[in-house]
Write a structure and sequence with these properties.
It is a single chain. The protein is mainly α. It contains 3 helices and 2 strands, in the order αβαβα. The chain has one domain: Leucine Aminopeptidase, subunit E, domain 1 (3-Layer(aba) Sandwich). Helix content is 42%, strand content 9%. A two-stranded parallel ribbon has the order 1-2.
Length: 108
Amino acid sequence: MKLFKTSIHEQLFEEPQSCSNLPHSHPSFAQLLCTLVMTILQQANQAQMQSIAIPAIGTGNLQFPHKIAAKLMYETVIKFSQQNPQSSLVDIRFVLYHKDKPTIQVYF
């Protein structure tokens, strides 16, 4: 079995992007989150990864609402799985900061 670790986030954008100036209620922010998660999953699948861990994106410094972020991330993983039934990814996990109680509560 081939084991390797890689960081996909560095490969997502050619230039650094910032969404911190978007209002959190703005639909573009939600779309950006979904697109980011889908891109991470697609790149992991293309790299033939079997597992991936994705942090709770946007819930920290960007202060995106925890419940919305969790819902969007779960829905994006389900959509990816439905669109890619033969994906190499069999283990998709969300990483939560152990001291971030509001985020932990909505993911469990």
